[in-house]
Amino acid sequence: MNRDPAPYREPNDLSLGGFVDRETLRFVRDYGHPPPRVWEAITQPAQLTVWLWPCLEFEPRAGGRCVFDLEGRRLEMPITTFEPFRTLTLGGRMRFDIEPSGDGCRLVFTLKRPPDGWSPMGMAGFHGWLGRLGRLLAERPQAETELWAAEIWNAVFAHYEAEVRRHVSDGARVIWRVHFAPGDAVPTAEARAHLDALAQRLKETGVAVTIDGFGDDPCTLEESFKLCAARVEGVAAYLRAAGVAAARINTGFVLGNYHYLVERDSEAGRAFNRRVELRPVY
Fold first, then answer.
1. Please, what are the domains in the chain?
2. In this structure, are residues 227 and 234 in contact, taking their beta carbons and an 8 Å threshold?
3. Is residue 108 within 8 Å of 34, Cβ to Cβ?
């Protein structure tokens, strides 16, 4: 009897990142490839585009710059360290260290705390991007990689949320979620109750908050971005009216009908996905 082959598993897939300290997250990846091959993958625009973000420019020198296109938003990062086959640092926040290990090498990827605080979604994203890097090095089919990448985020998101709670927020709640009716940007009564509680906590602690918007609405992706932006602004306005200083309210990701927490095959699932997430900046 013919059986479908087992799906490819990258050996590093379950190597979860962890905190070194409150400001530093580290991932370790072991590859059966020599350092020059891994160096190519993290410094050549065509390869960065495959596994990380669309890369428009990469000046291979310390003091140069790396430019990415994030869905129409230009992200320019200075190259602060450039030691061929050994160390690359982008923007002072993303550092790649490569060291020989047997017939291959070890990559240590270090991420520094963003100005708007740790995002479990972003942390899970880096886990996925590094998995894409491993598949690029292994020359796996891109279609296969995309299928894997579509699933891994949900598989590891809870781990990174728990890591922030354990190592950064001292056990305090990491994400406050409020939900919306389909096609609507007005917070519900239940959402307002959650926002009132969060506003009180923010005023008591003096911390800032970053707001991310997500949707699962019966509209186009372009329309969903506008809807989610309106939800984020509506929530920000509510917090300002509740006495939270505008300077302590940041906008993070506005991703529209893009990132789902649960399956979309029921109205309950879609309702849970229509959300704004508020992250106190610990």
1. 18-167 (3.30.530.20), 176-281 (3.30.1330.60)
2. no
3. no
Q: What are phi and psi of 236, to 5 degrees?
A: -60, -45
| Residue 24 · residue 112 · CB < 8 Å | yes
3-state secondary structure (DSSP) of residue 125:
helix
Compute the distance between CA of residue 173 and CA of residue 65 in angstroms, rounded to an integer: 37
Long-range contacts of 140-143 (CB under 8 A, 24+ apart): 140/8, 142/50
Per residue in 161-188, pLDDT tens? 999 999 999 999 999 999 999 999 999 9
Sheet of 24-31, strands arranged across:
18-21, 24-31, 104-112, 94-101, 87-90, 73-83, 65-70, 55-58
pLDDT in tens, 231-271: 999 999 999 999 999 999 999 889 899 888 888 889 999 99
Q: What are phi and psi of 48, to 5 degrees?
A: -60, -40
Please give the model's pTM, rounded to 2 decimal places: 0.88
